[in-house]
Design goal:
The chain is mainly beta and 344 residues long. The protein folds into two domains: 198 residues, Methylamine Dehydrogenase, Chain H, CATH 2.130.10; 88 residues. The chain is 4% helix and 38% strand. The strands form six sheets. Strands 13, 14, 15, 16 and 17 form a five-stranded antiparallel beta sheet that branches. A four-stranded antiparallel beta sheet has the order 1-2-3-4, with no helix packed on it. Strand 11 and strand 12 form a beta hairpin. The termini are far apart.
Length: 344
């Protein structure tokens, strides 16, 4: 069958006529975002002491959000101040709840993309205004810890760029509120600080988890000699690597937490062929494997977050898919039902 489409002279002239736009319209026009508005995944959140209605949430694309009604409504508090939108960590000072510190750049090294950040921001008025206080080259910040009685002392665990060998990673400290920073622990160019736990009963004691990794075009390399757990008892002046009882096999990503109810009790979730949930009852000197369930460390590059309950030493939470809770010191876990499958 042969079909012929014929165009009238008028239609042909319309087709060939060039569309022109007055250049003046382009000169005075200004682009603006009309939606849809979204913040992306949330990989950081925190509450404040003494008020169970106020929480802060950091997202991977929409900056920092705040609720004053226990999560019923949220509003953005970083627009107009932050130069980047990906948040890796949020912390509020226990001694002054108006002081909020945010580390930029999500820490999960995803297979598709990972949004980077530009260092650290601080607010003195509970998020109404912000100022940038440095570490702009760290790219991805996994944790921020503020001294419980002196908010000018801040520790930052910088994971660094997932792509390149760089010295802009490790544990950083400021004792003047961010005017100056000192790198107090560095392992190597491919090993970044993936987690940082503080003993709030004695804030001079900190535990740092390092992750030897690299994001390559075809996969994420996870694990190497740089992965491990380090401890300081003098506020970061000196560090010792903790090894007794930890996996002899190569370790990858690690999450660490210390019990506020019992500061000698430290938990670590470890990616390894000998991995799982490890526990130390003597401040990290000796470790033992208490649970090797692979669900606890599934998709390690994406999760590996662990939190000790501040009031009960036997309660510990692991964020993964699903979210899990133990009431017997990590021996067994039960799932906690949440609206979404991913828990960061």
């Amino acid at each position: 069958m042969l079909s012929i489409v014929a165009m009238t002279p008028v239609e042909n002239r319309k087709k060939n006529k060039k569309q022109t736009i007055d250049s003046l319209l382009l000169e005075v026009g200004e682009w603006r975002n009309i939606g849809p508005f979204r913040g992306g995944r949330s990989t950081a959140s925190t509450g404040i002491t003494g008020n169970d209605q106020i929480y802060y949430m950091g997202t991977t694309g929409g900056g920092v959000w705040k609720t004053e009604d226990a999560g019923t409504t949220w509003f953005n508090i970083s627009d107009g101040y932050f130069e980047t939108g990906s948040v890796g960590a949020v912390a509020v000072s226990e001694s002054d709840n108006n002081i909020v510190v945010v580390g930029m750049g999500e820490s999960p090294v995803r297979g598709v993309m990972t949004s980077s950040g530009d260092g650290v921001y601080r607010s003195y008025d509970a998020g109404q205004t912000w100022e940038h206080i440095g570490l702009e080259n760290t790219k991805h910040i996994s944790q921020v810890r503020i001294h419980p009685t002196d908010p000018d002392i801040i520790y930052v665990s910088a994971q660094g760029s997932p792509y390149a060998n760089t010295q802009d990673r490790g544990i950083y400290m400021t004792s003047d509120g961010g005017d100056t920073w000192e790198k107090i622990l560095y392992v190597d160019g491919f090993s970044g600080a993936n987690d940082l736990a503080m003993d709030y009963n004695n804030p001079r004691i900190l535990y740092a988890a390092f992750w030897d990794h690299q994001r390559l075009p075809w996969y994420v390399r996870s694990g190497g000699e740089g992965s491990g757990i380090w401890k300081t008892v003098d506020g970061g002046k000196t560090w010792n690597e903790l090894t007794e009882g930890l996996p002899k096999a190569m370790m990858g990503k690690i999450g660490v937490t210390v019990s506020r109810a019992n500061p000698k009790l430290v938990y670590a979730i470890i990616e390894s062929d000998e991995g799982g949930l490890y526990r130390s009852d003597d401040g990290g000197e000796n470790w033992r494997l208490v649970n090797d369930d692979r669900v606890l460390r599934a998709r390690s590059w994406y999760y590996m977050h662990i939190y000790a309950d501040p009031s009960d030493e036997n309660i510990v939470y692991v964020l993964n898919a699903p979210m899990m809770k133990s009431v017997d010191g990590g021996k067994s876990f039960a799932n906690i039902r949440v609206p979404h499958g991913d828990n960061h």
